[in-house]
Amino acid sequence: MALPDSNLKSSMPNHLTIGLFGFGVVGEGIYRVLEELPSLNARIKTICIRDPHKPRAAPSALFTTDAAQLLQDPDINLVVELIDDAAAAYRIVTEALRSGRHVVSANKKLIAEHLPELLRLQQQHGGSFLYEAAVCGSIPILRNLEEYYDNDLLHALSGIVNGSTNYILTQQAKGLDYAGALKQAQELGFAESDPSLDVEGWDAANKLALLLAHAWGIVTPPEALLRKGITRLRPHDWAHAREKGWRIALTATATRLADGKVGALVLPRFVDEGHPLYGVRDEYNGLVLESRLADRQFLSGKGAGRYPTASAVVSDISALSYGYRYAYKKLRAGTGGGLSDEFSLDVFVGYGEGTRTGASAFDEVYSTFHSGSGGYITGRITAARLRATAWWQDPDVSVIALPEGFTAPERTRVSRGKVRDLLIAEPVA
Amino acid sequence: MALPDSNLKSSMPNHLTIGLFGFGVVGEGIYRVLEELPSLNARIKTICIRDPHKPRAAPSALFTTDAAQLLQDPDINLVVELIDDAAAAYRIVTEALRSGRHVVSANKKLIAEHLPELLRLQQQHGGSFLYEAAVCGSIPILRNLEEYYDNDLLHALSGIVNGSTNYILTQQAKGLDYAGALKQAQELGFAESDPSLDVEGWDAANKLALLLAHAWGIVTPPEALLRKGITRLRPHDWAHAREKGWRIALTATATRLADGKVGALVLPRFVDEGHPLYGVRDEYNGLVLESRLADRQFLSGKGAGRYPTASAVVSDISALSYGYRYAYKKLRAGTGGGLSDEFSLDVFVGYGEGTRTGASAFDEVYSTFHSGSGGYITGRITAARLRATAWWQDPDVSVIALPEGFTAPERTRVSRGKVRDLLIAEPVA
Ligand SMILES: NC(=O)c1ccc[n+]([C@@H]2O[C@H](COP(=O)([O-])OP(=O)(O)OC[C@H]3O[C@@H](n4cnc5c(N)ncnc54)[C@H](OP(=O)(O)O)[C@@H]3O)[C@@H](O)[C@H]2O)c1
Ligand SMILES: NC(=O)c1ccc[n+]([C@@H]2O[C@H](COP(=O)([O-])OP(=O)(O)OC[C@H]3O[C@@H](n4cnc5c(N)ncnc54)[C@H](OP(=O)(O)O)[C@@H]3O)[C@@H](O)[C@H]2O)c1
Fold first, then answer.
1. Whose CA is nearest to atom 5 of ligand 2?
2. Does position A378 have pLDDT exceeding 60, yes or no?
3. How far is the CA of B23 from the centre of ligand 2 (A)?
4. How many Å lie between the centroid of ligand 1 and the Cα of residue A26?
5. pLDDT digits over A234-255, tens only?
6. Could you give the residue ranges of the DSSP H alpha helices within A114-233?
7. CA angle at residue B233 from B255 to B227, to 5 degrees?
8. Which end of chain B is more exposed for a tag (fewer CB within 10 A), N or C?
9. Fold agreement (B9-134, B153-302)
């Protein structure tokens, strides 16, 4: 069946001339993909790298180490920033926006830390700044939060947003030790150049900050978010997970509270078999969205690696060629109620020999276990009180959210008053 | 952190005045949702229904049975069509588009059967026609295929696209019989008024036709698609699934072939535990997309029911208020290679006592089982040859795709030449 093509010509894409910064895992991927997709109407004119002596799988005439050569080229209307140097990335992105150029970046740290300024520069100078690859790699979550979940009263999102920690945790669940698993993730190109960004949960916090902006119009410095990474997980925690048939995932979670504010945090979480995140393995990411009309939705896909990340960058380039920009409707509507730590969590708190972990911060203690080499407490605690405890960031304490819908074992559920007695009682086998 | 709001005013939404057709499961849902979302800048002016005597949970002044009152009202710039009368829906949608109005519909049958005409009417008269709710209810698949998977060389999609059959199959897997499960689905409002649309796979075929148009720019009459529903599933098939730890799902599948054409069909499928569709239960839908860069992606969400369906309709209304229309880029690019039946399938073919099921159509037979009350063949067959067999639509024959990545048991794998001998051999226990 033939299709008439009369008046759709108006939506022909604009031609984009690209200045590419970075030719590493993702940058070289973008170069290769654009070579194969002439239909995209986008061409790389110059590539800026750091080291002029590295051999490159592209014609040497394309390369320079002089950023100005790209940023001052009147031909270049799109800057694609894919480097691993935070300070340089900041200068490149802000200068490109200041000159009215469009920018695509995958640099969640830069974007999360400078969001208000980057929004202002877009508005003042007219460039469009897209960064889908910065959150959950290949999963089109930002675009969907902007365009699709716009009116569908979203009340929660929770997900695995960091591919390298998920890869590490998947290997650990199979019995590999932490150091070996981290090394593998680095060799496979999933990990950030500075691994603490991943394993301490900073990368997840950066992504959560961006999710909050696009989901509810909340702008927050990522440092303000309650955050714990995966470096404190103890062999006992893994044993507990195995015993219960659970996995451990590093999750970024945000929930709209009764007062309209949003509770948000990055925390390892036990995930049981019925939960959509249970099947999210290796470098995959997954996001569960809960909204009033649509109920529960789930999206998963690769969150790291050359081509999955490139797929999101290429989608941004394509969208730009059609004039797309994030509308930040929720931010402009100003209805996002801000963040709050006044919400409750069901957590497992593991501690080592000689560590003091007070149970007095808990509203309710479900169970306690203690032995010569440490123990754990499960119970309900508010985020605010968790943050205020002396032990929350103790290197020998793990804090892991209990599975969603966890039902406390009634037998061992003990009220707050009895906790102190229990804690000094004999170890339970 | 405050956000400057200088030049974003240009993206203020247009006001929409809605003429709503239908006040059933979905129509009444939309009415209620719009009442609660004044921010949407869309207002229902008149509602057209069939029966003027039914009590309605809305002011009676809103209602009419006269379609012309909506279609000729110069105030109404958006027609939302949510009725269950195919012929009337066709007249309403085409007339609304012919008058240049925007249209939102959830009527997959209408849209799939008249796609070329509906495209032409949009182009000739300028109205925008959106129908996200028509495919996978709340899952934003059409918008993502249009906008996001645009350049990411998609090579396959496969999914559970019909909520009521998935609900029925989920209940059957728990032991309920077919008739009881169908009745439940109807009572819950998931089933079409004419249940054969669901259970014979017609609804899935309609949705597959729409997916093909937005994924690859292929326009096909849904009747042309190879299709088998769930009415032929036999108790033996369920026993086989249970024995293997598989589920049965009705799936719509499309795969890009080596020659650029696409092989597409609707067929029940055994799904094993490692597959993303395994966890898609009840009225949920799920879609797996495979693409060259992003690799495998998975989306799931509710595919039927009042509010999940309404969530997609509301998203379309919101998008329209910002001037959105499907660009049908792939259709216009004309790169979709068309459909082909020259692709291979791994299938399980079950048959009853006295039924003749030839194995000669198979390229390879993996195993055969025969007993007094019938039996089955598993093997590899091309879609073209399956379609040409005498038994493919036999009421006593079930055809179920084997799990993805199914590895034929080497012991029993038999080449084509030996099949006839096996078929007349003694039953295998
Ligand atoms: N890898 C992933 O899976 C992934 C996923 C999502 C997002 N990201 C983000 O994508 C960005 C790039 O990551 P990557 O993994 O591709 O990094 P990478 O492999 O380490 O490559 C970094 C590239 O940046 C270049 N570079 C560093 N400093 C520079 C400077 N001052 N000027 C010009 N070029 C400079 C390097 O040049 P030389 O080649 O000369 O050393 C190298 O080509 C990061 O923001 C990262 O967070 C990555
Ligand atoms: N239900 C779902 O979960 C779901 C999911 C996806 C898509 N859809 C699609 O959404 C549409 C509506 O489904 P539904 O489940 O809401 O149907 P429904 O509950 O059966 O309601 C149908 C409505 O259409 C009205 N109607 C029928 N013929 C009419 C005519 N000629 N003029 C004006 N009104 C007429 C009926 O009027 P009376 O009230 O006077 O009888 C009734 O209000 C269908 O296209 C369906 O395929 C439904």
1. B304
2. yes
3. 7
4. 7
5. 999 999 999 999 999 999 999 9
6. 115-125, 141-147, 163-173, 178-187, 195-199, 202-216
7. 35
8. C
9. no
Ligand lying nearest the CA atom of residue A22:
1
Which of A295, A296, A317 has the most B C-beta neighbours within 10 Å, making it the best mutation to test the interface with B? Answer: A295
B402-414 in b/e form (b: 16+ CB < 10 A) is bbbebebeeeeeb
User: Which residues are paired to A299 by β-bridges?
Assistant: A287, B299
**From the candidate CATH numbers 3.30.360.10, 3.40.50.1110, 3.10.450.50, 3.30.70.20, the one assigned to the domain spanning A153-302:** 3.30.360.10
Residues B372-390 have a mean pLDDT of 92
pLDDT in tens, B256-309: 999 999 999 999 999 999 899 999 999 999 999 999 999 999 999 999 889 999
Bridge partners, residue A79, by sequence: A19, A103
Strand ranges, E, within A275-408: 284-291, 295-302, 344-352, 364-371, 374-382, 397-401
B284-291 and B154-160: which strand pairing? antiparallel
Per-residue model confidence (pLDDT) at position B12? 61
Residues of A tagged active-site: 207
Q: Residue A253 in 3-state DSSP? A: strand
Report CA-CA distances (Å) from A100 to A213, A272, B96, B335. Answer: 23, 48, 41, 34
Predicted complex ipTM: 0.88
CATH topology of domain B9-134: Rossmann fold (3.40.50)
Are A307 and B301 inside 8 Å of each other by CB?
Answer: no
Question: Mutate which of A9, A114, A124, A151 to test chain B, going by most B C-beta atoms within 10 A?
Answer: A151
Amino acid type, B3: L
- Residues contacting residue B365 through CB under 8 Å, at least 6 positions apart: B359, B377, B378, B379, B413, B414, B415, B416, B418, B419, B422
Contact B262, B216 (CB under 8 A): yes
Q: Three-class SS of residue B187?
A: helix
**Domain spans in chain A, listed from the N-terminal domain onward:** 9-134, 153-302, 344-422
